[in-house]
Specification:
With about 375 residues, the protein is of the alpha/beta class. It has two domains: about 15-185 and about 290-375, Alpha/Beta hydrolase fold, catalytic domain (Rossmann fold), CATH 3.40.50.1820; about 190-285, Orthogonal Bundle (Rna Polymerase Sigma Factor, Chain: A), CATH 1.10.1740.110. Helix content is about 35%, strand content about 15%. The strands form four sheets. Strands 1-4-8-5-11-12-13-14 form an eight-stranded mixed beta sheet, sandwiched between helices. Strands 2-3 form a two-stranded antiparallel sheet. Strand 9 and strand 10 form a beta hairpin.
Length: about 375
């Protein structure tokens, strides 16, 4: 299936590395290997290998960022931004998106088979961090023969990976676009994640993480997603979308679903359990909470960084409020790093980074055009 300005039909590719005894050393001190990363690419890498853009996905995202998989009607999760003539113009740039380690969409995670036991890792999978995710991605970028990325970009957890790329590999990133993200989680953000994790672990079907072969803890994971989804929207967007509208004409005077917003959350929760692994949810949310590049850790002391930044916030985003994006810019400015801050007026809340296509396209296209031209 194809539509106008689409990259068309695409296939997910797989890269395996860290074969024993060369396992990937993790931040926890443990090692992991072999590791497979699922990834997709769009566009063509130029002869200088100077036009590569790495797209980082959010918590429940995957490598399928654009185009269509054969036989499927829904495009990749950021298809509105990736393609010929779009913000990430594939007639000009080579765009890469990979699924993170710890995930469940083709990359090695807790649902993957542990080669030592022949069974899914489950809770034997080591705890991973955003730094570990980026370290793994660096091996993929090496394998593609790319020394320096034109840009790394992502929203939410993708924004954290974007920041981590600069912290870990400043010489390999010409520009960075962190969107709707933070240098570290606040206590409130950690609290929301912990409620989600506890919902999963309280489900008897979780079986201490060993539910593979039995069916996953659907109710617990659905509740976790319902809680999370509330934080993705704004008060105004929920009012506009649902208000206090009832599914039927009158109250049922039971504990059935009376309000449209209740039905919507239940639908979102039920849909999520069909496409995501509960243990991956636990591991990835923990990685989010461990992430911390505050207090000068983004740009190391004495390290000259020439990476250019475009930092994008959304006015109604209360999950990652504007002050957290401004904190990023302040740290960059104190280290004399070139950074532009843009706050978009939107009523969509945190979901705005996926929905405010026109405004983001304008900002990104102008920024990338300047960066790319300077490198010619």
């Amino acid at each position: 299936m194809t539509v106008e300005n689409s990259v068309g039909t695409v296939k997910t590719k797989y890269f395996t590395f860290a074969e024993p005894p060369r396992e990937l050393k993790l931040e926890s001190g443990q090692s992991l290997g072999p590791i497979t990363l699922a990834y997709e690419t769009y566009g063509t890498l130029n002869s200088q290998k100077s036009n590569a853009i790495l797209i980082e996905h959010a918590l429940s995202g995957d490598a399928h960022a654009a185009g269509f998989h054969e036989g499927e009607k829904d495009p990749g999760w950021w298809d509105s931004m990736i393609g010929p003539g779009k913000a990430f113009d594939t007639s000009k740039y080579f765009v890469i998106c990979s699924n993170v380690i710890g995930g469940c969409k083709g990359s090695t995670g807790p649902s993957s088979v542990n080669p030592k036991t022949g069974k899914p890792y489950a809770l034997e999978f080591p705890l991973i961090t955003i730094s570990d995710m980026v370290h793994a991605q660096s091996h993929l970028i090496d394998n593609l023969g790319i020394d320096k990325l034109l840009c790394v970009v992502g929203g939410s957890m993708g924004g954290m990976q974007t920041l981590q790329w600069v912290a870990s590999y400043p010489d390999r990133v010409r520009s960075a676009i962190p969107i709707a993200t933070a240098l570290k989680h606040s206590p409130q953000q950690i609290a929301f994640n912990e409620v989600g994790r506890q919902a999963v672990m309280a489900d008897p079907e979780w079986r201490e993480g060993g539910y593979y072969g039995h069916g996953q803890p659907e109710r617990g994971l659905a509740v976790a997603r319902m809680v999370g989804h509330i934080t993705y929207m704004s008060d105004q967007s929920m009012e506009e979308k649902f208000s206090r509208r009832l599914k039927e004409k009158n109250y049922s005077f039971t504990f059935k679903t009376d309000f449209e917003v209740e039905g919507y959350l239940k639908y979102k929760g039920d849909a999520f359990v069909k496409r995501f692994d509960a243990n991956s949810y636990l591991y990835i949310t923990k990685a989010l909470d461990y992430f911390d590049l505050s207090d000068g850790k983004l740009i190391r002391q004495g390290k000259a960084v020439d990476t250019r930044f475009l930092v994008i916030a959304f006015k109604s985003d209360w999950l990652y409020p504007s002050y957290q994006l401004q904190d990023i810019v302040r740290q960059l400015k104190t280290k004399h790093v070139d950074a532009t801050y843009c706050e978009v007026k939107s009523t969509y809340g945190h979901d705005a980074f996926l929905l405010e296509v026109e405004e983001e396209t304008h900002l990104v296209r102008h920024f990338l055009k300047k960066i790319y031209k300077e490198g010619e």
